[in-house]
């Protein structure tokens, strides 16, 4: 017997099409009026609680819908299935995710940065403790993923190279795949550095450009006061030929659509329209170090509206839309027992925003992991399947309750807890559908 998924979303789309989206699979499809009418007739048959008699055309349509999980077969409970996936991902010990900040020093002086004036580099002793930690887990692992973080991680390139050599040796010895990524400001990402990172299997880098050159240079100057945009753009242009580059644009209330347009013009002039993914991030006043910018920060609902507006500009300017409402087993590392963030001093954290704040550390890399530590439990404790609103939400698979750190705070309004998809799914689906339609049209024109 077939059933309709409770995670289905249907809405009017471009050119008399209807957009079909399922949050449990992430499938997005365009339906003609005829196809949508056929679906509505089929849905009525499937909703009466009895095994319906289907025509040949309806059986064919059902198979297509099953493929996208718009329809499922049998007595399976969708919520229970996702609850199982969530729990399995939480307690998975066969895949190790390691975020490493080899230094908290930075070559920039960003006005909103949570790190303040942190400094310091990872010592040989701490580095060896990290290697020992990985080596101890390796016999039971199926994969090892490392993300280099900071500060500016490229200021500690020698430490990254030394640790990578050890990680790759361990991975080879135990026959497990090793992959790495990086979060960098991009200023030191020269051609030589890119080539060295490729050898270290760093295949993805997130780089921040906070607007067009005149805005970025004001918001993200070098510590010596010099501008950074031009060199970063040059570095991105080379790096994007060899690895996946994601350009993050940090957004606050001072950021405008005109600024986005100017940035896209500069990226397009560098030939980067189809070579980088542009994403927008909400600046948050997450620590006392950045409390001075709290009034400029968006709330979730307001940010969701402006986010959709900015993505529409990406579409209109021919950029790739890589921000997709995709299902996830857990929302972030804080809900995975085998994901660890370690700073240059060897302190462990459960959230990127906590790095450097020893009061929010869960211990040290040289000590056994303490799953009962108050700071570990604080973020790990929230379970979306134990929350009535989350459990009944039609986009649960793509949100999973939103940011655990925000939920751990006192007095945060309900509409600030959910992911932005909760507030802008409809306009974002329209943008995504239009972008896919453009890709298909371009592919057809290329073949003809």
What is the count of structural domains?
2
**Fraction of residues in helices?**
25-40%
Overall, the morphology is globular
Can you summarize the main beta sheet? 9 strands, mixed
Instruction: Identify the CATH class of the largest domain.
Output: Alpha Beta
Question: Considering the protein shown, what is the CATH homologous superfamily of the largest domain?
Answer: Aldolase class I
Distance between the termini: 43 Å
**N-to-C SSE string, H for helix and E for strand:** EEEEHHEHEHEHEHEHHEHEHEEEHHHHH
Low-confidence stretches: 287-292
Gross CATH architecture of the largest domain: Alpha-Beta Barrel
Strand line-up of the largest beta sheet: 11-10-9-8-7-6-12-13-14
Q: Tally the helices: what do you get?
A: 15
Number of strands: 14
Question: What integer value in Å does the Rg equal?
Answer: 23 Å
Output the CATH topology of the largest domain.
TIM Barrel
Share of residues in strands: 15-25%
Kindly name the structural category.
alpha/beta
Q: What is the residue-mean pLDDT, rounded to a whole number?
A: 91
